[in-house]
Amino acid sequence: MGGSGGGFFGGSSNPEDLIQKLRKEEETAQDQAFETSVNEIISQLLTNYNDRDRETIDIHLETIKTALEKYIYGTVDLIFGGSVQKHTYVDGISDIDTLVLLNNTELEGLSPTQVKQYFIDRLKERLPQTKITAGKLAVTIKFSDAEIQILPAAKYRDGFKIPSPNGEEWSYIKPRAFARKLSEVNSANNSKVVPTIKIIKSIISYLPENRRLSGYHTEALSIEVFKNYQEEKSLKKMLKYFFNEAPKHVVKPIRDKTGQSIHVDDYLGGEKSLPRLLIADTLARIGRRMKNADGSKSYEKWCDILGK
User: Fold this and answer.
1) Which domain holds residue 264?
2) pTM beyond cutoff 0.85
3) Could you please report the per-residue DSSP string of 45-91?
């Protein structure tokens, strides 16, 4: 009478084989626990970003609109043209790019510089304790709980006219064209690209200023990186993929789909310029840190990368 010989685990009853199998199962369980814990902290970060107080933002925007409308004829409408429209806003990090659409007002005949100065004067009357500054394109209002960036605009053809990059003239843009392309890439990747961008922006925000990408550039770069993405649709995998692939794309200019300028990243200079190479190196370093954190199965290293 012979036994089956399979042993409790099946297969060989050789003790060394059983030990090896036990170790393999233990490693698999540890890998799964590690992946779960890191994905949980990423999801937690995302939840925190998504829980921003939209009611507070709306109150700020209504204050801005009222202040600007008070002394002019015609109407002023606020149109989300940036990270709010694209759902890539990160509280405390990303600007709320809002187009201030001037409808049949006397401001339409002024230069961008004059319109921005009008905005500043009116807003300072209404918000005397709030820091308000003008850049080449926009006016930034720094509230205690949000930083809102407003761009003067006028309806033109199927888009808008906003200040040109030099801030002196008006240029024609189509902001919805870019939002549409981002939406297409996001849909093709199980709606994971937009939340991945939020985490990317958060990670980048901890870098020195000369090593950071602009918010718009980050979004355009993400389109390039993920437009043919075929791997697992998880936030952790997509974060690693971005920081591995982005350095290859950032060294050369990306064409601007809104028409605002020739390239979205003109601020970095030409192909393989020093600023581009520095940012490419920084992104690659983050990618290597993620790889090392996975190699050592270090939850703490991932938390450090994520700023937790």
Assistant:
1) 177-306
2) no
3) HHHHHHT--HHHHHHHHHHHHHHHHTTSSSEEEEEE-STTTTT---T
